[in-house]
Amino acid sequence: MSGTGSIYEYPRKYTQKNSDQTSVKQGLYGTGKGDFKINIEEERNKIENLYDDGGFGEILCTELHYGNGGNGLHFKCLAKKWNISLEILGLLIYDHCKRL
Question: Residue ranges per domain, the chain?
Fold first, then answer.
């Protein structure tokens, strides 16, 4: 994963040769799409806009420790609630911890 500011390139790329062995297709596992970048700031803002108040760190900690009626949410449930992939959630948490 290479980071430039708060833009991250998705790290899992594949290279697939066509049957004629002359052309190469690159993309992400399971998608067939090309590389994409994740703007962490945009993702964080989307999540903050789901809540009435609090910054991303407060929201993250509250959901992990007290979400789901006080039992806390695990990563899969939190990603589903925020409608993001686990990989993006991991990048958000990584970016948050890096800033502490």
Answer: 3-99
